[in-house]
Design a protein that fits this description.
The protein is an alpha/beta fold. It contains 10 helices and 9 strands.
Length: 295
């Protein structure tokens, strides 16, 4: 069932547009902000975030009022390769956005920039009016496309570690998701299947009280039945006051799940719009549209 939040539709301003416990959690701490201690400077929320070298900071005053995520003329290069080209986009809260495209089209690069784990880009990026940095890491929960948990941990240990590291982590919600996914609580990750490991990681990421959730290929590499269960679990915990962006190249599996679609090709927005509107305009499914556009 597709979520249909009542907020305004996203828009783009351009139509073309095993690790140690510390290092394992560090992959997430980089995108979430460590739980502050009393009196710590990390507990403050500055009105603007300092920009990393090579990109522009922005403030709430020059970000569209309803845009939780604002991207303007974003370009990111890896030496001779351009991953994102003049990419512009505004996304309000209350949507489940499918970031769709083949491997290598720029999806992961975009999510890493939004998560604040990749810098050295040109253009403007803002999350709730702040450039990616300390302020945004407190409201962004990020699932990378690679495993990040210590393989010796079981579900209980992973929940315990997250509870210590992230101030907005809801351990009860995580335990509820683990139960929903029917995961063993005393079996180490190294003895779980890939699907089980993916479910545990999603349980942790979705149990933060974040405003923006970024999931990079959450159903890649698992069987179709597991994909359905994972998507059901994510939708079950979706807060309509937040924004969820899910990247994938498996369009048919995620089509029923998203209410807004962004098709990316060679670092640019190829096509975007409300999922139902796109299906009506093209008289076809999102998967069929994808297959036609990416021939």
């Amino acid at each position: 069932m597709t979520a249909k939040p009542p907020s305004t539709a996203p828009r783009a301003s351009s139509p073309q547009a095993g690790p140690s416990p510390a290092s394992a959690v560090g992959a997430q701490a980089a995108s979430a902000g460590r739980k502050p201690t009393s009196g710590s400077a990390a507990a403050s929320s500055p009105s603007t975030a300092a920009a990393s070298p090579g990109h522009t900071a922005t403030s709430a005053s020059n970000t569209p009022a309803n845009a939780l995520v604002h991207v303007e003329n974003l370009t990111k290069r890896y030496r001779a390769t351009t991953a994102l080209r003049d990419f512009s986009l505004d996304l309000p809260a209350g949507h489940i956005v499918g970031l769709m495209g083949p491997n290598g089209c720029g999806k992961t690069t975009l999510l890493k920039i939004l998560a604040g784990v990749l810098a050295d880009y040109s253009g403007v990026v803002a999350i709730d009016g702040h450039a990616p940095g300390v302020a945004t890491k407190k409201i962004v929960s990020y699932l990378p496309d690679a495993d990040f948990l210590n393989p010796t941990w079981d579900a209980r240990q992973a929940i315990s570690v997250y509870s210590r590291f992230f101030a907005d982590f809801d351990a009860k919600k995580a335990a509820s998701m683990v139960d929903f996914f029917e995961l063993p609580t005393n079996r180490p990750l190294s003895e779980m299947s890939k699907g089980m490991g993916e479910k545990l990681q999603i349980s942790l990421v979705m149990s933060r009280c974040a405003r923006v959730f970024l999931l990079d290929e959450p159903i890649s590499g698992v069987d179709p039945a597991t994909r359905d269960v994972i998507l059901e679990g994510i939708l079950r915990e979706f807060d309509p006051q937040s924004l969820l962006i899910v990247s994938t190249h498996l369009i048919s599996d995620i089509e029923h799940f998203v209410d807004y679609a962004l098709f990316v090709k060679e670092g640019r927005i190829l096509l975007q719009g409300d999922a139902d509107d796109l299906r009506a305009a093209h008289a076809d499914s999102l998967d069929a549209i994808f297959r036609k556009e990416y021939r």
